[in-house]
Amino acid sequence: MTDPEAAVGAERFDGLPSPTGGVVALLLVALALGLLAGTPLQRRLLAGGTVGAVVTLLGGRLWRRGRPVAGVAATAGGCLLLALAVGGAASRPARVVDRLELLPGLVGLWTLAAALAPLRRGRSRLLVDAGAGLAGVAVLVCGVIEGASTPALVAAGTTTVLAWDAAGNAVSVGGQVGGRGATARAELVHVTASGAVGAVAVAAVLGVTRLGVERLPLAALVALLLAGVVLALVTDRGRRVG
Amino acid sequence: MSGPASTRIADRVAGAVRHVFDPRTHDDSDGGAVRTDGGQADGTNGANRADEIDGADGADRADETDRVGRAGGADGSPPESRGETVRSTGRWRGVVAVVLLAAAVGVLAQQPALLLVAGAAVVLAAYPLVTATPDPKLSVSRRVTPESPGDGERVQVHTTVRNEGSATLPDVRVVDGAPPTLPVVGGSPRRATALPPGGSATVEYELRARPGRHRFRPATLLCRDAAGAVEVETTAVAESPIACADRLPDLPLRARSRRRTGPLVTDEAGSGLEFHSVAEYERGDPAAGIDWRRFARTGELASVRYRTERLADVVVCVDARPEAYRAPSPTEPHAVARAVDAAGRLGDALLDAGHRVGLAAVGPHASLLAPGSGPDHADRLRRQLATAPAFSLIPPEPASPEADGAGVRKPEADGVEEEKPEATPSLDRRLAEIRALAGSNGQVLLLSPLCDDAAPRVARLLGEEGAAVTVISPDPTTGRTAGGRLARLERARRLRALRDAGVATVDWGADAPLGAALSAAGERSR
User: Fold this and answer.
1) Is the confidence metric ipTM above 0.90 for this complex?
2) Is residue B523 classed as helix, strand or coil in its secondary structure?
3) Measured between CA atoms, how close is B26 to chain A, in angstroms?
4) Contact A190 B171 (CB under 8 A)
5) How near does any CA of chain A get to the CA of B66, in Å?
6) Helix B93-108 crosses helix A218-241 at what angle (to 10 degrees)?
7) Are residues B318 and B305 part of one domain?
8) H or E segment to which residue B125 belongs
9) Which one of B170, B268, B322, B474 is CB 3.0 to 4.6 Å from B338, fit for a cystine?
């Protein structure tokens, strides 16, 4: 027997990630990857992938809102664009390192779009982590192969974290308020605040770089960094207990 | 397109409402949750709130009431909250992993630039540590137009949340407590916004009125700090009941009862108001009952008998098993919400008529109230319906704690005669308790959507020791889907089977007022 759907209050509550935060997160990832992309070809591929990701997200939303034909068409179109971008990134750049640079980022963009569309309910958070993680891998790869300048790398890394935060916030707002409720104001305030902190972080780190910190022994830098992390963790713990 | 997942999320948030609404659960804490004082409760309506709280342990509650009563009083003192839940969402903890990974890769690849990336990430990891935990001072007011709508009329609800504090609240999520018995037909009772000091935001939505008296649940307010790392959950009550007229006709009590005079019209001949039969005069029949016209016509003495009216012990029993939480669509109230609403109105009507009324639930939680009468008993009955977990309007699904800290604990037992839910509640034992409550002479009004084959069995078992059972069945099926049509057929078959087995049934359609359904059933049985 197929049961009529159970409802809690008598309210149409979708609990889907908020589209505003979703689009912002995708654009932030695109910005991070754009900071890393060195060649015009890479930029073109990235632009195509970004448009594909945004269209996928909006198509998924249309589909969930009871416009299945338009939604599926948009999602399919967006995914096609993304697939072309990923295929291009995998085959077209002449140097293998250039391919490695862009590929994880584009797949991450795709994953993030799938998380926020959302193509699968209840998996949004996991997919957000995976998508942002892949974008982070792109940053790391770029750092290892020295594919970008230090300021660009630091800014890209920070922007990736901000994108992850915006996407996580979109899922959280969606889970409590739903994709239909008015959420843009709260989300934009959140992203702006995080963005300001991110800008301060980048400025601070680059300011420290000016002091010639790169000439310090690597071990000393690592020790300083670990001290910072331990301090952060201890403070966090103290705050939660207190 | 709304599947089980959305329902679960909705449960969770709705569950959150219930959680904070229930003062007892304030003892428990999740993880590193800390409670603070401060915050808000709508002072002018604070006293009303006490009505909704179970009064089992009077002293505690009185204190609670007092505090709420004072909240936001005329003295201009800051409003005081009944309780807030502060929880850490752990949103930024993952950044520490980013820091360590970037540092590790930087060390292995001998790339100082990656260490700098890690350094920037440390700043972001420290960001949630410097944001202030919000101390929300919010007031909620609600405007409902019209307050007394007709059946099916649209009701506009405007709920305004105002930041009465001096700090900006960067992330305020409002979930207005729309009455669970009314479908939301336009807009959304939810909103997320940022509120500067003195700023306000309005949630606008439309309800479709259904007969009955409907109460709003407390609005849930979730305030996060700018980083989203700490969430403060609080509730605010703004009383604005919606009354939609629906007079209940004579209730379909069955013709058997204790030998006490009362308003229940029975099939027994005797003294009363309603004509029953004319029988040959017997010595001792009252002279006033003699049919003098017949005597004039035929010369025979005959006396008119009337239907005897008696008093009944009635146990109103709500089927609140997980199987009963069904609705025709996500925007319609589910069968248990309708049943609980109906139980309250039936209880009131029966008590008004002078019957002794008891209350019981069939489901994972037990809730029993022995038949009684009088205004105190009426209060007890209403309170139990409003607060006991057995009559929870949230489907009893296992709540899974969620990573974002929005996990919700189960509402704890709260009420007069309740026990903790058991892993496998013995249905038979519960039914035996209800049978004992009704006794062999009493009546049971079972409110069940009859959505599974166990429901008719419940009805039959309730009548096993002689109690007369009437099943009032809110119809949760829909004709829009094939599955719904099948469910409808199966339900009709169960109703038929119950009728064939001698159980009185009332089929209460999704859009029909309860009164009309009862009248229709009454006419059919005559």
Assistant:
1) no
2) helix
3) 18
4) yes
5) 29
6) 170
7) no
8) helix B112-130
9) B474
